[in-house]
């Protein structure tokens, strides 16, 4: 209708141009966007960590060379000297060396022994200085520390076997050695401290545990 009206008044070409111009001047309606049409990536919604937060996987550690193995073995034997025919346990304190073999005593796992040490410390803290059982608790506490020293010593020496097996990275063995060294020295120091405290606070008490062997230099038990 509009076209017929314009064609009656204006030339046909001009009417068509005006009609096309009028149609082209209207702006297209803006299409709404929504996340439902294009959901955000999983990491952006908190389901997975951002790609930038994912650490790269470390490459596998190369096998240790012969020189590195020899250097590590020297570190082990410096902390836990290997035994000989005359002295199978040269790295232990006299009380730890005097511990009887397992065939002559009941075995206690390390977690059980650690729990007993904690229990003895709590018991000791609540005891009066004149409690007749107090020296027995100190004696038992010292013996537990020296047993722990002996167990850690054997763990330390087992690192030499693990080194030869070539199944563990050298960095892992180094971490185990550092941990064993700290626990080994702490167990020995705590044992002697308990013996010293026993002698100072209860001089009339005769130790029945490992404190009685702290000055013993005889050959250790195997």
Percentage of residues in helical conformation: 40-55%
Q: Average pLDDT across residues?
A: 78
Supply the helix-strand structural class.
Answer: mainly alpha
Q: The biggest beta sheet, please?
A: none
The number of distinct helices, counting runs of at least 4 residues, comes to 7
Question: What is the ordering of alpha helices and beta strands?
Answer: HHHHHHH
Strand content: under 5%
Distance between the termini: 117 Å
Poorly predicted runs: 217-222
Shape: elongated
Total strands: the figure is: 0
CA-based gyration radius: 40 Å
Question: How would you characterize this protein structure?
Answer:
- By secondary structure, the chain is mainly alpha-helical.
- The protein has a domain at 72-213.
- It is 54% helix and 0% strand.
- The chain contains seven helices and no strands.
- α3 packs parallel to α7.
- The radius of gyration is 40 Å and the shape is elongated.
- Mean pLDDT is 78; it is low at 217-222.
What's the short version?
With 222 residues, this protein is mostly helical. Helices cover 54% and strands 0% of the residues. α3 (66-79) packs parallel to α7 (170-201) and α5 (110-125) runs antiparallel to α6 (134-165).
